[in-house]
Write a structure and sequence with these properties.
alpha+beta, seven-stranded antiparallel sheet, 38% helix
Length: 260
């Protein structure tokens, strides 16, 4: 198992883009006992150690083994040492699994959609529509009390989940939401709707703020593997415009359902 992981990690260091999925597929099913922030830190440390080990004229065995162990920890969420002593930090309700809200990434973008404001608001207000145009989202499940459960994609096939609540809802004007305490990702956002004159449609402005797992370390690792929240939101809004102006919701690869 260790030799397989190191072989795959070696390909990662040489630029094989299919490597992250191979790493995930190489992992056995194990119980999760590592919190999301620790997994991100393990991912950064493991990648750095493997890169260092392979950069040496004579490959450093200790660096490759240590890096492989950290990559295993990151991709499976399992620490064999913690498992042996019965210790876990994976409980999302534990204080050490929460993300501080005073730092983070902020994104602000707008788009004009040639549809009445009521139609645009109605589509967005049904949060289960969001994964149809937000590529980083896998699923959003809503309940009748204004709360929802979100599942999103992260680098190297990792998933993050959180519960959120609607905090502002003025029909055809604004929707605001924030994650609940103990979430893998501390996030908040709003979308404002403005009806344009002369029937030109609706301008929507999206403002997002989030702290990824491990705070700024998580942001760095996300960008290292090609994730760019500013570009993501801009492309998401372009897809939203296409969907609403075409008048239909397309089937999205990896999206198991639309409105339940």
């Amino acid at each position: 198992m260790a030799s397989t992981l190191l072989a795959v990690a070696a390909k990662s260091a040489t630029g094989d883009r299919s490597t992250p999925r191979k790493i995930i597929n190489a992992m056995p099913m194990t119980p999760t006992n590592v919190s999301a922030p620790e997994r991100w830190v393990s991912l950064a440390g493991g990648a750095a150690l493997v890169g260092y080990g392979l950069s040496r004229k004579t490959p450093s065995l200790w660096a490759l083994l240590s890096g492989g162990y950290l990559l295993y920890r990151a991709t499976t969420g399992n620490c064999p040492i913690s498992q042996a002593v019965g210790f876990s930090t994976a409980d999302s309700t534990a204080p050490n699994a929460a993300i501080a809200g005073r730092h983070g990434t902020r994104v602000d973008h707008s788009v004009t959609i040639a549809k009445p404001v009521a139609d645009v608001y109605r589509f967005w207000r049904d949060l289960e529509n969001l994964p149809h145009f937000m590529e980083h989202l896998i699923d959003v499940d809503t309940t009748t009390d204004g709360k929802s459960h979100w599942v999103a994609k992260g680098p190297l096939g990792l998933k993050v989940e959180w519960d959120a609540e609607i905090i502002t809802d003025t029909p055809n004007h604004v929707i605001g939401w924030r994650s609940l305490p103990g979430a893998d990702v501390d996030t908040a956002g709003s979308v404002r709707f403005r009806e344009l004159a002369d029937g030109r449609g609706t301008e929507i402005r999206v403002e997002l703020k989030y702290d990824p797992p491990a705070g700024q370390v998580g942001t760095f690792v996300a960008k290292l593997f090609g994730e760019n929240p500013d570009r993501q939101v801009r492309e998401d809004l372009r897809r939203l415009k296409q969907i609403l102006e075409a008048g239909e919701v397309p089937t999205v690869k990896g999206q198991p359902h639309g409105k339940r």
